[in-house]
Structures are given as C-alpha cells and as structure tokens.
Amino acid sequence: MDNVENSNYSIEMLLTKLEEEKLLDAQGKQEIMASIPSLLQKNSSPWMIQALVALAAWWAAILFLIFAFGTRLIDGKDSMVIFGLLFSLAAIFLKRFLYIPAMKSSYIFVSQLALAASVAGQILLVMGFGAEVKTYTGICLFIIGLEVAMFFAYPDVIQRFASPIIVTGACLCLFSELKLLMLIHALIPALGIAAVYLWIEESWINTQKEALALKTLSYSIVVSMLGVLCLSAIQDFEFQRLFPIQYWWISSVCLSLLLLLLEHRILHSYGIQTLSSFYFFALGSTLVLAALCHNSPGIIGAILILVLGFSRGNGTLMGIALLAFGSFLFFYYYNLQSTLLQKSLILMGTGTTLLLLRAFFLYLFVKNREEQA
Questions:
Q1: I want to staple 128 with a disulfide (CB 3.0 to 4.6 A). Which of 45, 81, 169, 266 is the partner?
Q2: 30 compared with 300, residue with greater pLDDT
Q3: Contact between 64 and 116 (Cβ < 8 Å)
Q4: Secondary structure of 259-286 as H, E, C letters
Q5: Which residue intervals of 293-339 are DSSP H helices?
Q6: Residue 8 is part of which domain span?
Q7: According to the per-residue pLDDT averaged within each range, which of 15-24, 289-298, 342-351 is highest?
Q8: What is the per-residue pLDDT for 318?
Q9: How confident is the model at residue 121 (pLDDT cuts 50, 70, 90)?
Q10: What share of the chain has pLDDT > 70, as a percent?
Q11: pLDDT, mean of residues 91-100
Q12: pLDDT for 128
C-alpha cells in the first residue's frame, strides 16, 4: 500500500507541474489520477513461477485423466462432455468467486487447483465433442469457440496467454483440412496488425480495468505470429507434402508494409521530417531488406517485433524478437543452395554491412538533430 501512496504522490506532483505550465488540463489530470491503480496492477508471480505452474497443471490434468480412464470413472463420450463441463465450470468458479484477501496463501493452492481442473475440463470437452462429431473441421471450430470462451470466462494469465496460441493453431489445422492454406497469408498480417496496434496503444491499455488481460494478449499474439512464420522456414519434403504452402512473398510484402508504417510513425515521433535524408535512407534500407528476404517472412516479422519492442522500451519483447530473428536467420542461410564457403562469405558480408549501416544511421541521426537545433 505504501508503494501505491508514494506513486500517487510523485505522479500528482508531476501532473500539477504540467498543469501549471499549461501542458495538461484539469480533466486530463483527473483521468490520469483515476487510472493510477490500473497502472500499478502487476502479476503476483514472476513468469518462471507461472511457467512451472502451467507445467504442473498439465501434469496434474494428464495424471488425473489416466486415472479416470484407467478406472473407467470416465467411459464414453457423454461422460467426457459431462465431466469436462463440470471441471471447466468448477475452475471458473474457483478462479472468479473464491478469492479471499485474508487467505491469500491458501488462494495460491486454489488457483493451481483451478488451472488443473480447467486443463482437464478442456481436454475432456474436446475429446467428447470430437467423438460426437467425428469431423476434423468440427473439432477445430469447437476448439476455437472453447478457447475464446475460456479466455473471457477464466481470468488467468496462463489461460489467456495460451488461448490465442491454441486458436491460431486450430486455424492452421482448419485451413489445412479445408485446403485453404493460402489463408495463412491473411492470418499472418492480421496477427501483425493486432500486435502492432496493441503495443502502440500500450499506454491506453494500462489505464483499463482489464489491463493485465490485454497485456497478456499482446504477448500471446506476438508469439502466435512468430509461430506461424516458423512454417516458412521448414523445407522438409514430407512437411511440404502435408502443408504445401506457397507464395510466402505475400506475407513478406504485407509485413514489410506494416514495418514501413511503424518506422514512419517512430521517425515522426522523433521529429524527423518526411523529406529528410535520414527518413528516405531508413525506409529505403527496409525496402532493400524486404526485397532480399521476400521468401523469408520470418526475418521481416522478427524485425517488426524487434522495432516494436525498441519503440516501446520493452526488453522482453526485444528478447523474443532477437531469439526469433536468430532462428529465422539461421534457417535462411541453412536453406540457401550454396556451398559452405559461399555461406560463410555471405554471413561476413551481411555482418559488415549491418555494422556500417549502424554507424551511418548514427551519423545521420546526430546530423539531423544538429540541423533541427
């Protein structure tokens, strides 16, 4: 509570100073002060603990299902659906309506129990519904509907992170079943636009009541997009036969346009004019990169997230992007039809070019600042 009070006091002093200098009106000050509790909302556990809790919930659910099927406690599609509904509803009740601040330590156990029940319930529902409809398309549509419902009904960080990823995977399976794999080139830009919008509006999101849910959704969409882009790096013959995805340049073009728009917004936020040499050189370099990577949208997507993370000052987002960028770059050079010596020379040349571009960009940026001054 002391941290909240100290934060209120320091922020109020800052807002009062802005109001005195006519940079903020009274209504704006009131809105910001009202949003402070949401701005200070944090997840109670570090991400490592959350990951371990998720693994524990999966193991608990799997062991319970093995026991239930082994003892014939659950036998048949009807019992799977009934138990799945019961577990899912129990998980929602435990998570939403059983929080008692005075028993916070006990609530940690209840939260883990609810997550295990949620996982078991969703697995049983999918299995029961799948046994009933017996069509791949119906199962995929059911999974999408179930995960969307659980995202809103079950207020848990792990569930809300996993649901968009599962929905994306179900969409990919649905496209494959319906022989509409070209729709992947619509899914990737849609995920990219959603990711950019959510992170650009991060300041507004932090003032909302469901800030934690929206923030989790932002990370999940980024991971989903990069996960779909992994398909472009797989050149295995068997995989290509099962998923004959063509025309990856379409996704590359869409992501490149999105990257250009993001760069335009960032450059203008730094006061760089549209007709300046720095502006043209920055966007021109992006166009050259897009042309070189026209069949490797994963590289462009990773750079998009990297630029987005840099613009927001988000180290986690930049770390995810750098990991993805390194992976996509490795597969890009690995899949080149060249000798090992040629690939080595290309890597050396690329590294040297990037270092020179960095030095040149810094020079142009400093020069642009001096001209404006």
A1: 81
A2: 300
A3: yes
A4: HHHHHHHHHHHCCCCCCCHHHHHHHHHH
A5: 297-312, 315-334
A6: 1-40
A7: 289-298
A8: 93
A9: very high
A10: 83
A11: 78
A12: 92
Residue 7 falls within a domain, yes or no? yes
Is 72 within 8 Å of 241 (Cβ atoms)? no
pTM score of the predicted model: 0.81
pLDDT at residue 161, rounded to an integer = 94
| Closest to 239 (Cα-Cα) out of 301, 157, 331, 325 | 331
d(CA 268, CA 272): 5
Mean of pLDDT values over 294-321: 91
Query: Could you tell me if residue 22 is left (phi over 0), alpha (psi between -120 and 50 degrees) or otherwise beta?
Result: left
Q: Is residue 47 part of a domain?
A: no
Does some domain include residue 83? no
Residue 28 CA to chain centroid, in angstroms?
A: 31
User: For position 2, what pLDDT does the model report?
Assistant: 41
Is 28 inside any structural domain? yes
Residue 94 is encoded by which pair of tokens? 């435990």
**What pLDDT score was predicted for residue 40?**
47
Query: How many CA atoms within 13 Å lie on the side-chain side of 69?
Result: 13
Residue 115 and residue 58: Cα distance in Å, rounded? 9
Select from 183, 142, 184, 191 the least CA-distant residue to 165. 191
Enter the tokens of residue 212: 């934690």
Per the structure, the count of domains in the chain is 1
Name, in order, each residue with C-beta under 8 angstroms of 110's C-beta and a sequence gap of 6 or more.
Answer: 94, 98
Q: What is the dihedral of CA 298, 48, 218, 24, to 10 degrees?
A: -130
- Residue 159 CA to residue 220 CA, distance in Å, equals 10
| pLDDT tens per residue across span 355-372 | 877 777 777 667 766 666
H/E run at residue 68? helix 47-70
Q: What angle do CA 267, 273, 276 make, to 5 degrees?
A: 105
The confidence score (pLDDT) of residue 82 equals 93
Q: Phi and psi at residue 68, in whole multiples of 5°? A: -65, -45
Sign of CA dihedral 237, 238, 242, 243: negative
**Of 357, 265, 350, 373, residue with least CA distance to 312:** 265
Q: Tokens standing for 290?
A: 């897009």
Residues in CB range of 96: below 8 A, 6 or more apart: 153, 154, 155
